[in-house]
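Changelog note: in this version the structure field was regenerated for every chain. One regenerated record is shown below for reference.
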Amino acid sequence: MLLGPSRRVRRVDAATVDRAARRLAAEGVAHLVTPALHLADARPFLAAGFAPREELHLLRRSLRIETPEPDHPTRPGRRWHRELALGIDATAFDGFWRFDRTNLDEACRATPHHRFRLIGSDGPVGYAVTGRAGNRGYLQRLAVDPVAQGNGFGRALVADALTWLRRRGADEVMVNTQERNTRALGLYRSMGFVDEPHGLLVLERRLA
């Protein structure tokens, strides 16, 4: 089960986290996982008995620099396309990182404005969810079926996201990815993203 800071109250203390964990344990929850957290947000969870599960690279790109045009056309994803996107997601990520419908819905709701795009001429082979909050953009999710990787679909989805964000007044865009996902890191860095000094942590706590 996912447990993280509230959107309304970003900073919590270890005692509050521990009480929440114990309450969930009493309800039968056996395993808690946090969203990706900055170190400052992770500290109370670490103090409450959570341990690191994954470390993520956090990258930033200015939208004031040249934005490439997509090499492949993308098309709007509708709500009824989300099952197709989840099928792509299941091929692109392992079990821990794989999205279910709740995860995908949360990615689309995480920011006030979002863009859900599909790519593939003979049926979708990739998708992306991009969010915007004020002048900052977020590449929330990018997945391409492994059998279609290496054909520029991921690059086109990123380019589409950058263009959309820039046209809507965003100044910069953020993305995170697993440290071992060298393909994704290479793509983002080749498109102008640079690593932040500190990454993100995903934490977990076993309750049973």
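Spot check on this record: The longest strand covers residues 51-62. The chain has two domains: 14-56+200-206, 65-170.
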